[in-house]
Amino acid sequence: MRLLIVGTLEGYITAAGKIAMKRGAKVSHTDSIEGALTALRAAAGADLVMIDVKLDIATFIDSLKSERITIPVVACGIGTDAAAAVRAIRAGAKEYLPLPPNAELIAAVLEAVAEESHSIVCSDPAMLATLRLAEQVAPSDASVMITGESGTGKELMARFIHRKSRRANEPFVAVNCAAIPENLLESELFGHEKGAFTGAVARRLGKFEEANNGTLLLDELSEMHPRLQAKLLRAIQEKEIDRIGSSQPVKVNVRLIATSNRNLEAEVRSGNFREDLYFRLNVFSVAIPSLRERPADIPMIAEHFLKKYAEANGLGDKRLTEDALLMLKAHHWRGNVRELENTMHRAVLLSRGEEVGPEAIMLTSKMLAPEGSAQASIPSDSPVANPFAGPGGTVPAAAPVQPAAPLVVPPQGGLPTSYGPTSYGPPKGGKPGPYGMPANGGAAAAAAAASANSGSAAGLAALIGRTVADVERDLILETLTHCLGNRTHAANILGISIRTLRNKLKQYGDEGRSVPAPGNDERATA
């Protein structure tokens, strides 16, 4: 949690900052609205703003909206000034905290923001059962191993366990073991003393000490080098760490959660992961199902990201059409929730109007479908398989699709239907069929899913013998055609800058390739 304090808070800034830091927040401060906007534009950013009620809150919130910066704002002022509180709420502040600062109130606000920022959206029984299991083990101090494919939300699950634990008011510190080089990871975890190595100009506390009394997440632990695994094992067993360059051990009290997208038992057998460390960490295991294994979550998660990115891009409310929803349900989702999030972000940028149709949904190739996946991309004879097949690149009329009924969790299962801000539970208004399955509908989606992904091997074989440059060129040109020549949208989808895209297109034109002309919107602004 990153907290930005704006103004003096009636002289209580030090007290408020100390309370927030004790609750695990990283606190920064600025005196003015201009300084706050500069800080929020920077890479560090913030998750919550606490602003002095004497400052112009309305102007600050209007500036945030104009720059499309989405962040909750909490106003702070003397508790007896009711008029100031009313003005702050009317200006757009989420809450009003009276001063002097109250530790419990600040903790409640920080917790509410943390839950809202890291919510788990689901309704499928498979995921609900996983959450119930995680909630059951959360109050203990047992180490937890979270496994699952890439993009399933392993860090979100770790945060969920932390919020439900007895350490919820203490720090939650995450370390990505795959993103930090081996020679730096030891210092990152255990810290170092001044002069311990070249460049160690001052003592630095490691993540173990930062997370003291709280929770330490070791993300992608399977990527850690075996030499460092031995030191980690000792830290877990002895509950003490040795800073690099120090002769004095430091006692630590942390709850460890580890994640991996690999089969750790196979890694142990191959000698890449220490067996003793595996059994030390794997006191309790939580396996997150892939998105393919919880299809009832797809509509709910898609709507969640649709709303999120529509707001982030300053657009109005958008909704998925039935044909677009059919495409999503039939896809293989190799990248799981992360892939679905990116797909909905693209859809928001490509769609025009309030409805998001098949023409705005760009899915990954069948060649990326997991081996043995029961789901496949849209069949070639589906009306949504080629959304630009109509005259002039228009979308052909699609046959009406019977919508699937919302899936409802059977009450005899005893699963919770509401967990407050995390908002996971069955959708309202649904009628259950046998064993909690949808009572009707879903036939069209089932037919699409049953279509075998027979073209995967043939499509992959077609790439063999071609150069990377050739494949890249075809991908860029086909994406540009899909975007009707719009360079900006194509660059966003491809994940490259508009300048890089233009340079590539100029190169292809010089080579005699046919390059789609700019879209109407771009020609109008040229």
Automatic annotation (TrEMBL):
Q: Name one Pfam family in it.
A: Sigma54_activat
* Transcription among keywords: yes
- Region annotated Disordered, chain positions: 414-433
> Which molecular function terms from Gene Ontology are attached?
ATP binding; sequence-specific DNA binding
Instruction: List residues of the Sigma-54 factor interaction domain.
Output: 120-349
InterPro entries named in the record: AAA+_ATPase, AAA_lid_NorR, CheY-like_superfamily, Homeodomain-like_sf, HTH_Fis, P-loop_NTPase, Sig_transdc_resp-reg_receiver, Sigma_54_int
Which UniProt keywords are present, listed alphabetically?
Answer: Activator, ATP-binding, DNA-binding, Nucleotide-binding, Phosphoprotein, Transcription, Transcription regulation, Two-component regulatory system
Domain named Response regulatory: residues:
2-114
Which residues, renumbered to this chain, carry the PTM 4-aspartylphosphate?
52
Composition bias, Low complexity: 414-426
Q: Which GO terms describe its biological process?
A: phosphorelay signal transduction system; regulation of DNA-templated transcription
Its protein name is Sigma-54-dependent Fis family transcriptional regulator
Organism placement in taxonomy = Bacteria, Pseudomonadati, Pseudomonadota, Alphaproteobacteria, Rhodospirillales
